[in-house]
Known about the structure:
Blueprint: E1 60-64, H1 70-83, E2 92-95, H2 98-105, E3 115-120, E4 126-139, E5 142-154, H3 163-177, E6 182-187, E7 196-204, H4 207-212, H5 224-230, E8 242-244, H6 250-261, E9 266-268, H7 272-279, E10 290-296, E11 303-316, E12 324-335, H8 345-365, E13 370-374, E14 389-400, E15 409-411, E16 417-422
Parallel strand pairs: 5-6, 12-13
Antiparallel strand pairs: 1-3, 2-11, 3-4, 4-5, 4-9, 6-14, 7-13, 7-14, 8-10, 10-11, 11-12, 15-16
This protein binds coenzyme A (COA).
Amino acid sequence: MTGLASSGKNVKDMGAYKFWSTQPVPRLDDKSKIEVEGPIKEINMDLVRKEAYPLSMDGFEWVTMDLTSESELKEVYDLLFGHYVEDDEAMFRFNYSKSFLKWALRSPEWKPEWHRGIRATESRRLVAFISAIPVTLRVREKNLKAAEVNFMVVHKKLRARRLAPLLIKEITRLCYLQGVYQAIYTGGVVLPKPVSTCRYFHRAIEWTKLNEVGFSPLPKNSKPAYQVRKYQLPDHTATKGLRPMEKKDIDAVLSLLKRYLATFDMAPMFTRDEVEHWLLPNSDYDDQVIWSYVVEDPETKKITDYFSFYCLESSVINNEKHNNIRAAYMFYYATETALTPSASRDALKVRLNALVNDALILAKKFKFDVFNALTLMDNSLFLLEQKFGAGDGQLHYYLFNYNANPIAGGVDHKNSIDEEGSGVGVVML
Ligand SMILES: CC(C)(COP(=O)(O)OP(=O)(O)OC[C@H]1O[C@@H](n2cnc3c(N)ncnc32)[C@H](O)[C@@H]1OP(=O)(O)O)[C@@H](O)C(=O)NCCC(=O)NCCS
């Protein structure tokens, strides 16, 4: 599930990279140390096309999707619902809700032009889509004005016709036109060349349902009742002062998060508006997308900790009993314990385990079936203790037009959790 796995049907055959070898990205075999990290090529604006790339197929045209329109939002939703990322066995497919897409694609300073689609000219049917949102990304000591590219999809009937390279070139052009020359994107497929690779971990909440849909097999020598007991959780959270984040907490969360994210090699530089948008639950949306909690010290009233998770459901394809899995994904978190010079990594481990155990309890309360997390940030300190199991999926992080030395992804060369942790402080949706 999730990234999804890096082999199988969402994967290209490892070949010549006909398209990617023409792009400003490092080569897969490039192992040399980069002395000065920076852009791969300077973009000459005079050479950037002012009009869209011609489509290679007749009967189709480029469109800008207006995601403030409910009907166009629904078209993007429907395309992703039917055609977006599946696991290898085609048992599950991501089902990003309309509320989720509103949240993910209309973040502060979003650009309408960066929601690009392809329609069949006659039927007006939307058959492909790609998007970007602006982000200030810090890679080690440098801040990049970048685009986060996501939600690339091509209708199943139009696959393998080189539409993906066209979508990528078109979104690149549209970014260049706005003076944005770098991008970050993630995927389960291996492309030239990941700057980091994380692994997915899954923590069962409703084990029986996960077993029934084929997500969690019964381990050898175990019994269903044992599995259910293993994943049981208390009814109530345990951390003193834990409460849902409110509007009045924005500045405190911003300060905490900024200082915590500064400890990683690669992280977004959040503004106040971004913290409000990304982290504060918004009742304007039909469905809740994000759950955010703070810990307020009962005495000093200071916010000492923060954590959040978002909801991303997956459709279960062809199962008689269930058609949906409700998954919570670990989002941003931060804790003063990581920032107190005298506190050890052991202290951080204790604190994160307490917080994440509460996150699991809350996720259960809000009817999630599973809680997913990657090996990024300091997740390696809690994954095993909180009974997350390793998934098959890997998530590769890529930078477009930027040369950077590798960033630790929290897994070693055997794909096991690396206690050294990760340098990745970016959570992509
Ligand atoms: C990903 C998807 C858009 C690719 O389209 P396609 O019709 O399969 O592939 P095309 O023939 O058009 O293009 C192939 C090229 O795109 C590249 N490509 C494929 N998937 C890619 C990805 N996720 N990101 C970047 N490039 C990708 C291939 O490497 C290949 O380029 P190369 O010759 O340099 O190796 C399509 O398979 C799809 O919609 N899949 C489900 C959704 C999905 O996985 N989206 C990406 C989420 S990360």
